[in-house]
Amino acid sequence: MPALHGGDVGGAPAASIRGMFDRIAGVYDLMNTVMSAGLHRHWRTRAADLTGLHAGDRALDVATGTGDLAFELAGRVGATGEVVGCDFSEAMLTHARGKAAARPSAPVRFEWADALQLPYADDSFDAATVGFGVRNFTDIPRGLRELARVVRPGGRVVVLEITTPTKPPLSFFYRLWFDRLVPALGLLAGSSDAYTYLPESVKRFLSPPALAAAMEEAGMGEIRYLITAGSIIAIHAGTVH
Length: 241
Hints:
Elements: H1 14-24, H2 28-36, H3 40-49, E1 58-62, H4 68-77, E2 82-87, H5 90-101, E3 108-112, E4 125-131, H6 140-150, E5 151-162, H7 170-188, H8 192-204, H9 208-217, E6 220-228, E7 233-240
Parallel strand pairs: 1-2, 1-4, 2-3, 4-5
Antiparallel strand pairs: 5-7, 6-7
Helix pairs in contact: 3-4, 7-8
């Protein structure tokens, strides 16, 4: 599954987590592909589909990591639109900018930002996304309010996250994969702390109904979510009031 990125993170000081993100930036894309068998690309495509973006629109991807979801959004807004990808890890942003340089037709700008205090004006975007980052916000309600604040009324906020299956046999396999195999892969990649933290952060995160309720409290309506990948992935979409 995709690793941690973006936003301020609970469970440890933000500075130490930022340093962890910086350390894993070089193996981030490879680990995403190995842990998800390449399916993370499909999940991001589905999340981008739910934004309802059109050519010429403006979109924000928070906790962008190395930029894969931002590039998906760029494909929706086209050359006349704009996508901003923001993250709190400069090393992640360096990799994202390197990927952007190889895609000169993609209208994406990458910049540093704190997900809990976004440096953008109210109603600045037609849609905002977070891929595998909301569970790491120190203050999830505040982060969701920030997403709603910067999106215009009628625009959409989409949250792509890992969730925990509760029914066997998948729940047994999930625990084996996340509790044993993912940390082992992280150790081989030289990033055992990050890939031990990953399953811990998922266990602490809100259930899909609870996240939907939190999005509603943050100022969104018409909230829908889909559970996919054998109940491992949840994609929430809400419309800003």
